[in-house]
Write a structure and sequence with these properties.
α2 packs antiparallel against α3 and α3 packs across α4. The protein is mainly alpha-helical. The protein has one domain. It is elongated, with a radius of gyration of 18 Å. The relative contact order is 0.09. The protein is built from five helices and no strands. Helices cover 62% and strands 0% of the residues.
């Protein structure tokens, strides 16, 4: 799998205030970003899990812990799909 490295700069005093190592912060930022990209429908559940560096199962647990629905299908979408299927 090919990857691309992205660098960000964070002021030292902010890092100190967070009491996290650079590795801990990177892990947290990847998870936070993955959850937000999943919620905005920019990434599927599987891709968000990969982005976060977590297994799909662990990413689902992270979503549940943060009260984020695992399925983003709303009732109207579900109803619409049922209508399509019933007309086949």
């Amino acid at each position: 799998m090919e990857t691309q490295k992205i660098e960000i700069e964070i002021p030292v005093h902010i890092m100190s205030a967070m009491h996290k190592s650079g590795e801990e912060l990177i892990k947290q930022m990847k998870i936070f970003t993955a959850v937000n990209l999943y919620l905005s429908l920019e990434l599927s559940l599987e891709m968000a899990a990969e982005f976060s560096g977590q297994s799909k199962w662990d990413f689902e647990k992270i979503l549940a812990k943060n009260k984020v629905p695992i399925s983003l299908i709303n009732f109207d979408d579900y109803k619409s799909e049922l209508n399509v299927i019933s007309n086949l």
